[in-house]
Every structure is written in C-alpha cells, then in structure tokens.
Amino acid sequence: MTTVPCKQLAGVIDQIENCDEIFHIPSNKEDEGMGLCAGAYMGGKRSAIIMQNTAIGVTINTLVTLIQYYHIPLPMLISYRGELGEPVACQVEMAVHTKALLSQLNIPTYHFHKADEVNELDAILEYCFMCKKPVAILTDASFWKGA
Amino acid sequence: MIRSEVLKALVPVISDQLVVCNIGLPSQELHLLDDQPSNFYMLGTMGLASSIGLGLALAQKQKVVAIDGDGSVLTNFGTLPTIANNVADNFVLLIIDNGSYGSTGDQPTYAGKKTSLAAVASACGCEHVVECEAEEVAATVQAALDSKQMTIIVCKCESGNIKVPVIDTDPVVIRDRFMKEVSSRNSS
Lengths: 147, 188
What we know:
The structure holds 2 protein chains of 2 kinds. By secondary structure, chain A is an alpha/beta fold. Chain A is built from 6 helices and 6 strands; from the N terminus they run βαβαβαβαβαβα. Chain B has one domain: Thiamin diphosphate (ThDP)-binding fold, Pyr/PP domains (Rossmann fold, 3-Layer(aba) Sandwich). Helices cover about 45% and strands about 20% of the residues of chain B. A 6-stranded parallel β-sheet of chain B has the order 2-1-3-4-8-7, sandwiched between helices. A two-stranded antiparallel ribbon of chain B has the order 5-6. In chain B, helix 7 links the parallel strand 7 and strand 8. At the A-B interface, strand 2, helix 2 and helix 3 of A face helix 3, helix 5 and helix 8 of B.
C-alpha cells in the first residue's frame, strides 16, 4: 500500500502504518506511487494507493500508459476533497473536475457519501482485481464524518 | 561508448536477471539485443522504471535490475528518497547517464551539466552509490548483484543513438510473460 498524505485520511494512513499485515511505503508523488504499485503487483502482491482527488490531475498519463495499457489492477482510495463540508475553497476547483476526468478515462468509480456505503469495499476490491483495471473509491467529508 | 554499447556489454550480466527497462530507445535496444521473458519493457510513462523496479524488488525475493536514464530520473526525482528509505537488498538501480534526452533527439539534461545524480542519490540517503565509466559497466553491475546490497549505479556514457525498431509486442503480453517468469522463479 502506498500513500500520499491527505488531512482527511490521516487516521487511515496511521492505521496502515501500524498494521503488521500491510506493507506501507509512502510516496512523494502519486505517479511514483502507481509505479511502486505496478511493480508490487507484478511481484505477486495486491497493491493499492491512497491519495487525494487532486492527484487525478497528476496521474492521468500514468493511469493511461501504465495501469490501463498493461491491464494492472489498482484500487485507488481517494480523499474526495472539495465536497460538502469543505473548508478550503481551492479544493473545490479540482472537485468539480474529478468525476468528469474519471469518467473520461473509463475508470469505474464509486462514491462513498454515507457511512454504510463502506460495506461495498470488499466487493469493489474483488471487482478491481477480477477485471485488472484501476478503480476509484471517492470518499468525501460526509462519509468520514459518519464513519 | 553510447547507451546501446553499454547495454550490449551488460547483456551477459543481466540476461538471466529480472530487468525493468526504461521507456523508449533503452527498451527498444534491449529488446533487439536480448529479448527475454525476464525483461519488462516500458512502452510509456517516462520516469517510473525505478519505482516499478523497487516495488517489484520489495514484493518478491529475486534480484531486480532497473535500467533507467538520467532524464528519466530527473523527471521522477522523488524516487531517490523513496528508494533510500525503503531498502531492498535485491535491487540494483542502473542509471545510464548520457547527459541527454536520447529518445527525443539528444537534448541536453541538467545531469550532463552541473547536476550530479550520484551526489543527489547519496544526499537522499542511498548508502551504496557507485559511479562508473561505460567500459566498467558489466563488472560494476556484476559486483552490485554479488554484493547483496541495494546499489545505485550511475554509469556515464556518450550520447548518441542507433536505429532500432519499435517494440510491437502487446503490453499485456509483455506484462503477462514477465509475471509468469517472476512467479516461476519465486516458486522454484
């Protein structure tokens, strides 16, 4: 599991760091993290990335020419900043493009808004590794408030 | 020596190793010189050979050689601190530093000017950083593989390219063939 920090996911990243069953390798940038994930997958591991939705802008080339081109499964647990409850106006600028970009890239996208939507996580992960595609799980502030 | 000659000299040393090879001409040259199921060719995504190589090295036991270029390391500079802080002693990163962006027409890189990639790797915390001349590359990579210590090699060579065909193998075929090789080596 590789992570690029987001304040909203700080607690999740702490748990990953302290979990003995998960190998955690922090990345400096999300495209680097996707490279690490691709390598770990080819080494026989189930890899995943945690990042902010702003990273969609950073990683489009990597998503298309590495993850999709080589059919590599990649769950992306994404902090969906810029939605209801957002205190930082600039975050909204990327939020308004997030779903459109994911849609343009034909990336299966799930939006966790209410706490009980987390029940789909296992099925989403299974689906991701079955179809060998990147899959986006957008988790917004309302979801984390109820979690 | 230019990069294709460096790769030619390397073939006897890396032919039986898992290799992740950088985008563009380096992959095309290696493919022409010594195509192996143990080679993963990058057809796109400049800069990520070292990240893919590190991820692969950390995930399994076989030795991994990532062949990168100075321009590609410059485009993914964040990789060096990540490598330094997540030591995989089965990982060798070979940076073939010809001081130019070879695949795009030999435009000069900053590594060919004031910037020393070996000094940067050391400053990032990489513990075994070796600089070598092109003529020494085979012996240097062999020594790094034998040392069983994660090693970053910066191999200086001249810029210049030979004419090579593009790789027309389907990326999924390259990946699948490589994964089967990785899996079989780890199970035997």
